[in-house]
């Protein structure tokens, strides 16, 4: 497969610099745009292996969420859910994208949901990849904050692949190398606030207001979304399509690359 990577670029939106990577190959000027919002400690570059394949079918944009990668960062910025959702809205508007497939993984899925209820425009479909369903009065998110903070601090000091393997023992050399290279760009206060808001922000209240076709793509392992959660989400969003990659944990394409794409079925049209 030839690479579909086009370029990395920056755009000013919602008052800050947003860095993104664009994939699309021959269809970049005519393909339907797909905007991908990664998870809590995943700079855009770490999703490149997924975006390469998405780029065969879509004009694909992978965003560095504020406080991560090459986007604006630092103590002067806000990192709450509403602000990050507004970033998504402003990013789509700044690039003048239309008929967008908006996809988010984990934290990014929560931001995508909130963006839909805060005025996101020109969104055609929504893809929610194993979003945390914790919140006030709900069970805790299964991962623990020290796992994130300790690994970031290790990378700030200069961690190598073997150090990263302690945190992600099943990952390939390639993915461990990328994480070791880029994790230091994750601004710790941004990560702490995002994690805390997994538990303090009720994203379920937003679901009934989502009015575009939505796919909920769940991991079969890891315990982020359980059967009772699927039932509740279906009650809140009767039209939602739910699929599960049984063999994968929360980082679904890292664990089962083909299974991840198979889980889309025909939701996005062509077979991925």
Automatic annotation (TrEMBL):
Occurrences of domain AB hydrolase-1 (ranges): 34-261
GO MF term list: hydrolase activity
Top-level division of the source organism's lineage: Bacteria
Pfam families: Abhydrolase_6
Signal peptide: none
UniProtKB keywords: Hydrolase
UniProt cross-references to InterPro entries, sorted A to Z: AB_hydrolase_1 (IPR000073), AB_hydrolase_fold (IPR029058), AB_hydrolase_sf (IPR050266)
PANTHER family: HYDROLASE, PUTATIVE (AFU_ORTHOLOGUE AFUA_2G14860)-RELATED (PTHR43798:SF33), MONOACYLGLYCEROL LIPASE (PTHR43798)
Listed name of the protein: Alpha/beta hydrolase
